[in-house]
């Protein structure tokens, strides 16, 4: 049966998102139709808009941080049924790529995707879905393995945050570059992802968590979420200050530094903040022509003499079928803070206003309620 719904869609490059009527084909084999309950507004969706679709074909249904309930299952789907609460993952392992075949699904090359099932009602045009999800919509169709069942007691307006920002940040500290107990950590950028890195480092029992930002509001958030120290990079040299705070007679520095801004110089700073043998992790979404310059020879902060490592984090290198239920359980046990991650609840028609608020820098997450 054809379903009808509404969605926030980019119809062409350079234009604001529009709320339009959509139709949805029934889910095909291995797919599910999800009725959305909530969707977080992530910076990646704003980036897709600002980059003119980022190579995707228009029209584009925005959104990739969604939670809802299964409304219909396609042929061959036996692990889900109508009514099941789910969070939508954008990186469900494909099971076919070299990484999956060698037993390393956390580094899957190509996530599973549904066939195009969403149409612009006005002309029948097939819609692309941001990161194979398209959650700024009343309904969407995704691969069944990308719909991760949640505990019945998990509130879906909180669960949706797990889908991207939270699993990316927490996963950076747990999976990409696992923090060891007692480690010193620096986090550059204290938006939703950076605050989740702080939470991940706390869960991994870091002894010191130094938050770096230029926004005093975000630095206060960082303290609230577990940072032991804060550095305002607008007022001081952040590299020098982090190394001063961690001075231990061995040139100072942190064992782990995480960049959560997408700004190239912040990756350079993360590397320079490291102690001997430390690991920097870049998380932020870069532009195509972004580049960094890394010093090799400086005796204190150079990559060679400091034996520095640089990792890249994609979605926390998550295995959604394992990590999403784990994060939900940590929330239910009071060990993961999600409630205070939500700055405001909005309606579907407020997406552009939420984008503007995000650009102002004083919002952690806006959550669309359907």
TrEMBL record:
One GO cellular component term noted in the UniProt record for this chain: cytosol
Highest rank taxon of the organism: Bacteria
Enzyme class (EC, first level): oxidoreductase
One Gene Ontology term of the molecular function aspect: zinc ion binding
Domain called Enoyl reductase (ER): residue spans: 14-368
Name recorded for this polypeptide: Alcohol dehydrogenase
Family: Belongs to the zinc-containing alcohol dehydrogenase family.
UniProt KW keywords: Metal-binding, NAD, Oxidoreductase, Zinc
Stored PANTHER family: ALCOHOL DEHYDROGENASE, ALCOHOL DEHYDROGENASE CLASS-3
Gene Ontology biological process: formaldehyde catabolic process
Pfam families xrefs: ADH_N (PF08240), ADH_zinc_N (PF00107)
Necessary cofactors: Zn(2+)
Record carries keyword Chloroplast: no
InterPro entries linked to this entry: ADH-like_C, ADH-like_N, ADH_Zn_CS, ER, GroES-like_sf, NAD(P)-bd_dom_sf
E.C. number: 1.1.1.1
């Amino acid at each position: 049966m054809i379903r009808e719904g509404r969605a926030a869609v980019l119809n062409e490059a350079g234009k604001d998102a529009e709320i339009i009527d959509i139709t949805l084909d029934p889910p095909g084999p291995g797919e599910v139709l999800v009725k959305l309950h909530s969707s977080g507004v992530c910076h990646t969706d704003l980036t897709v808009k600002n980059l003119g679709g980022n190579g995707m074909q228009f029209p584009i249904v925005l959104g990739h941080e969604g939670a809802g309930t299964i409304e219909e299952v396609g042929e061959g789907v036996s692990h889900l049924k109508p009514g099941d609460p789910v969070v939508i993952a954008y990186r469900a392992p494909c099971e076919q790529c070299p990484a999956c075949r060698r037993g390393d699904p956390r580094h899957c090359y190509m996530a599973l995707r549904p066939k195009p099932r969403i149409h612009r009602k006005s002309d029948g045009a097939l819609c692309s879905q941001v990161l194979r999800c398209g959650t700024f919509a009343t309904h969407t169709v995704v691969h069944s393995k990308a719909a991760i069942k949640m505990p019945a007691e998990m509130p879906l307006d909180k669960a949706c945050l797990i889908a991207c920002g939270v699993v990316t940040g927490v996963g950076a500290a747990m999976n990409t570059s696992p923090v060891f107990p007692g480690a010193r950590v620096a986090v550059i950028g204290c938006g939703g992802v950076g605050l989740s890195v702080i939470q991940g480092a706390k869960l991994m029992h870091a002894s010191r968590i130094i938050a770096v930002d230029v926004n005093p509001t975000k630095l206060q958030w960082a303290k609230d979420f577990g940072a032991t120290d804060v550095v305002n990079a607008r007022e001081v040299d952040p590299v020098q200050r982090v190394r001063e705070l961690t001075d231990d007679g061995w040139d100072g520095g942190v064992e782990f530094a995480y960049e959560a801004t997408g700004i190239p110089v912040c990756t350079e700073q993360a590397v320079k903040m490291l102690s001997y043998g430390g690991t920097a992790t870049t998380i932020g979404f870069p532009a195509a022509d972004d580049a960094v310059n890394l010093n090799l020879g400086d005796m204190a902060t150079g990559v060679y003499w400091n034996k520095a490592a640089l990792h890249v984090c994609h979605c926390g290198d998550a295995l959604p079928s394992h990590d999403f239920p784990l994060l939900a359980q940590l929330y239910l046990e009071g060990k993961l803070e999600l409630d205070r991650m939500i700055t405001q609840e909005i309606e579907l028609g407020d997406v552009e206003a939420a984008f503007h608020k995000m650009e102002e820098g004083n919002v952690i997450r806006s959550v669309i309620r359907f």
